[in-house]
Amino acid sequence: MYHIKEIVIGIAASGTTPYVISALAKCNEHNIITGCITCNQNSPLSLTARFPIEVIVGPEFLTGSSRMKAGTAQKLVLNMITTTTMIQLGKVKGNKMVDMQLSNDKLVHRAVKMIMDELNISETEATILLSKYKNVRNSITHGRQ
Fold this sequence. Notes:
Elements: E1 7-11, H1 18-29, E2 33-38, H2 44-48, E3 51-54, H3 69-88, E4 92-93, E5 96-97, H4 105-119, H5 123-133, H6 136-143
Parallel strand pairs: 1-2, 2-3
Antiparallel strand pairs: 4-5
Helix pairs in contact: 4-5, 4-6, 5-6
């Protein structure tokens, strides 16, 4: 396994957006790995990216709007890429994101629930662990000791 420091993925439904193509071309010049997600086969963007992903969804129901089929398809691909990346980076334990940023109340509540389920402890105990160790992974690790 090798370590990659930078990957740039250009996103353009048509695959013809000039600034996205130019950005990937510049990255290629600097040996930065490039990919793209586009919805047109053999587009200029696909031809520029080293690792093109082409999701052919056909014409939009509403002509001129690329946020419907194309945007949804691109979002699905991005979700797959980011989920796989988090798994490869070791940020996931089982089906739980144990290194998530606790940036709002919803995520803190989710973290407490994960700790409760993993350690079979009360909400109060899980909250104390999370307060002390600041993330799910450390709370579970230290809660087992």
